[in-house]
Amino acid sequence: MLTKVNSVANYGLKAVDVDVEVNVAERGFPGFGIVGLSSKSAEEAKERIKTALINSDVEFPTAKITVNLAPADLPKDGSGYDLPIAVGILASIGEINLPKEKSYFYGELSLDGSLRHTKGIFLLAVLAKEQGVKSIFVPRLCANEACVIEGIKVFPVDNLRSLIRHLKGDKPIEPLAFINTDDVLGDIHPDFDFSEVLGQEMAKRALEIAAAGGHNIFLMGPPGSGKTMLSRAIPGILPDLTERESLEVTKIFSITGNIPAGGSLVRHRPFRSPHHTTSMVGLIGGGSIPHPGEVSMAHRGVLFLDEFPEFGRNSLEALRQPLEDGNVTISRSAGSISFPAQFMLVAAANPCPCGFLGDLKKECKCNVHQILNYQKKLSGPIMDRIDLHLNVPAVDVNKLMLDSNKSQGETSATVKIRVRKAREIQRSRFDKISGVHCNADMKNSHLKDFAKLSTEANLFLKQAVNKFSLSARTYFRLIKVARTIADLAEAEVISDKHVAEALQYRVRSE
Amino acid sequence: MHEWKKWPIKQQDKLFYRGEWNEELFKKTLVVVGSRRMTRYGREMVAKFMPDFVANEFTIISGFMYGVDTEAHRQCIEMGGKTIAVLGSGLNYLTTIDNDGLYTKILESGGLVISEYEPEFKATVWTFPQRNKIVARLATEGILVVEAGLKSGSLITARLGKEMNKAVYALPGPINSISSEGCNWLIKTGAAKIVTEIGDIIGGVVKQDKLFEIDLTNEENIIYQLLKAEPMTVDEIAKTMDRTVVDISSLITTMSMKNLVNEEMGKVYLAA
């Protein structure tokens, strides 16, 4: 008998309708075959389904079972087809009745018949809403992902037995209640608070400016100066995720399986710190069935690249497009897919390969050529896209001890209020300009209108250009940073003081 | 590149050389040597003393290595002085690629590049100490060690100089700086005379510190006085003055535009 079960396939950041057709034929040699461009993991479903059914006290039919995943030309990956195929077999042998209304089934089976955490449930719910599908059956572990979508019934499935009872009408599964996004998004505590970082006031100020204007930032300093700790604190001073942003991030997290069991919407701005050996595909995204990379996982959050010069040249070059466009387009024979990638880049590096160049207490063990080679890697097109450059000196432990009983330093919440304010000013300023959301997005042509310098500031900047022999590019970047500093001070016109502070964060070439 | 090859190699007293041999060059010479791994302090000190050396018509002799050697040659030429580079290899073999331009500049400025080895001879571990012997022998006014570690070639030069009864001078450095350990040791053991000003080498009247004539605002003056004691980070200045880093940052920029301070690796220094 032929049964048709509805399920989905994920392609990029979109789910598409898939019909799972299961035919159990009494005639013919017994067997179990899946067709329809299924990948290895989908192919292996056969063994899982067979064992899971047997362990759920279902007599597995000795018959010719044919499964077709349609449309047959779309590649299907992942283990989520276990559940729809199992349901199809159960319906075909008359064990259960399929729900009358169109329902999606999706989830990976364990050999004991229980359902495992499965990727992409959130996308499935989004598609269900679009297609007017009223109910979905998904593993309980990730059912919360779907609950933030209003108007669909989410049936959390623990195992095959409870699903069989539900579909037979013996003991119905209670659908989960809708989760209001506002409830999830309010009240967020940062993982790392600014006040936990002792000292480094200047670095904190630089991060505040970066967060306020959406600028990318580069930190250089010896090991142990707190570069990583400072970077981790950035998500905490960025404005909270808006509902729209949170949905975008949740999509990416759902498809990569990064939402923990029981989690629903992503509330924290992502912080990603890929290791410097990460491949280009890992960083940018790709694969034969394109998969988002670290830049997309950091969407709306922070991408922290520690040991920046150690990253492969190719990987760094490939960062240029996402930095410029805010998305990554990956083209494969199957088609091209675009993943969003709007992130704040935080790059960190040691001053030399061993890290102790310029340190009085520890000897630098690098020779001159190593140092030159290392620093050569730090120039180039990527560095041109970083507005703030900062040296983070090592903190003297003795001085830390002295200060520890003094004031604690500002908390993330206090800084965040200023950042939010500055962002609001920018939002109203760039209201009518498409593609510009914050100062860092400004094109040079915008500076004339939006970044007005006072007469003194203009003169000061011109002098600085001569004194420090600044390039045209640095000149424009400086104005953008000065604009953000003025916004933080809620000043309309950029003053010479703002320019002077911005100059502290310029590129310092030897 | 390799413009210096236009100068022919000549020979004199068993020494190979490029440039114009002039006995005058060897009349009043000061050897300036030091660590390959020069710190900012070393560079500043070479820059501080060199104008006076050149004004006193010293010929500066050094070993053409990177670090202090290179800096001494370069600064000397910049001030319009004469300098002699003694190589630890043949005259056609460069131990440091970066010094290609400097080679030409030494010759153009009327200096000499000399070596006791055949032109194509490659440098080895033992040629450098051997070279130091020549360096030490050429010193008439003395040998100045700017920065040196405890196991450095500069200490060999100093010892050889001592054996030849030359005056040996050393610049003191911070006691926790590895690059100054050798110098401080020379001073401590009495092997070298301490140098804190040009008068220690040429003798004569000790000059007073220049007074500052640029307009300093009150705050700038406070920062200037603080930095006289030691280089500080912006954080430290802000804490000491009980001001925000925002204020201090812009003050530091203004001061560096006035050439009062400069910054490196996150620290603010008084301009040399």
Structure, explained:
The complex is a heterodimer of chains A (510) and B (272). With 510 residues, chain A is α/β, with parallel strands linked by helices. Helices cover 38% and strands 17% of the residues of chain A. Chain A has helices at 40-43, 45-55, 82-92, 121-131, 143-147, 160-168, 181-185, 201-213, 227-232, 234-237, 243-255, 280-284, 294-297, 313-318, 320-325, 368-377, 397-404, 412-429, 444-450, 455-467, 472-488, 496-503, and strands spanning 2-11, 14-25, 31-35, 64-70, 103-105, 108-109, 115-116, 135-139, 153-157, 217-220, 271-272, 285-286, 291-292, 302-305, 327-332, 335-340, 344-349, 388-391. In chain A, helix 2 crosses helix 3 (82-92), helix 8 runs parallel beside helix 18 (412-429) and helix 8 (201-213) crosses helix 21. Chain A is elongated and about 90 Å long. Chain B has 272 residues and is an alpha/beta fold. Helix content of chain B is 38%, strand content 17%. Chain B contains ten helices and twelve strands. Chain B has a nine-stranded mixed beta sheet with strand order 1-2-6-5-4-3-7-8-9, sandwiched between helices. In chain B, strands 10-12-11 form a three-stranded antiparallel beta sheet. In chain B, helix 4 (127-138) crosses helix 5. Chain B is elongated and about 65 Å long. The model of chain B is unreliable at 205-213 (pLDDT under 50).
